[in-house]
Amino acid sequence: MSIPPYHWWRTVFFLIPAISVYTIVLGTVSVFSTVFDRRGRLAHGCARAWSSLILKTTGVRVHVVGLERVVRHETYVFVSNHQSIYDIPVLFASLPFQLRIIAKESLGRFPFLGWHLRRAGHLLVDRTNPDRAGILSQWRALVSDRLSLIVFPEGTRSRDGRVGRFRAGSFMLALEAGLTVVPLAVSGSRHVMKKGRLMTCPGDVTLVVHDPIPAPRVDTPTVADARALAERVLAVVRASVDRLEAGQ
Question: Which of 8, 41, 149, 248 is the most buried (most CB within 10 A)?
Answer without folding.
Answer: 149
